[in-house]
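Page 47, continued from p. 46.
Same chain as before, 380 aa.
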Amino acid sequence: MDLLNTLVEKGLRRELPSREEALAVLATSDDDLLDVVAAAGKVRRQWFGRRVKLNYLVNLKSGLCPEDCSYCSQRLGSKAEILKYTWLKPDEASKAAAAGVAGGAKRVCLVASGRGPTDRDVDRVSQTIGAIKEQNADVEVCACLGLLSEGQAERLKAAGADAYNHNLNTSEATYGDITTTHTYADRVETVRHAQGAGLSACSGLIAGMGESDADLVDVVFGLRELDPDSVPVNFLIPFEGTPLADEWNLTPQRALRILAMVRFVCPDVEVRLAGGREVHLRTMQPLALHLVNSIFLGDYLTSEGQEGKADLDMIADAGFEVEGTDTTTLPGHRGGGCDSPCAGTPVDGAEPAGADTASARTDLVTVRRRGAGTDLAPNA
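Result:
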């Protein structure tokens, strides 16, 4: 396909595709899916070889959030029967992080529900970062605490944080449809706070909330403009008890096309396969490794992922290798160690062809009952 050849050439040059080209990727047929994956895979291998970075989530404070994000099981008014607990102590969080590091994780992501941290919360997280770094000096620590106020990113950086995550989630035009308690601009401002403090910015999206192809392209182009170092791609987990519980819009094929589009638009960025991969990609997860260069190991914030050993087996069986702590993730022009791998018709605004509601796999949504906040061993 001329489209794919053009996109590969642009990706190898780090050239932004046109909006029409990005839409065309989402509109390709299932018959062309393997060609799309192969093309995007060439771009992925150019910048990241066959390495897969492992990340591990630690949910520091679960549930009871005052924000009304429709996709979230921790939202205001959520009836999802998730774990609810207040802040983990630094030693508890460090113990949880150690399980992920032992499983091969290079980065630990510290997440807390809420609109944003108070100064006291920043102190708590700073102590937790210190405890983790004391036990595992080489591990990267990313904080995800919501909207940041002036000076808070600098304090996290001084405490030893390496990165900050705050996702844009969806397009600016439709943001008000999923959240009313803060704005798209608020999220952009927080990412810029993190970048201004010298933290590596991590910002991504959630697909499968009923958005159009145009919305998906808009948010990914917005991310490209914001230029984070890593872009997590989440697929909606439709929790019972949330407003989007009936949004089963994704097929494995569509999920792969979305990942390919993100890779073409963000060719040299750490694209991370994040929440919902087990639910929506299912047995086609290994194909996604040809598109992304980073995944979460084990469980998520309020849902369970597949077993950590299964993740490691999947990576090995697909011919990839886990990225070590002695390897820089990003290519040299993005501040990494080297410039190459170290060792249908698109209709603007058209609604996606979603999966039939009858195909909803509610059996695959498993509320997390182990790890942080429980007496059971974590999944890593």
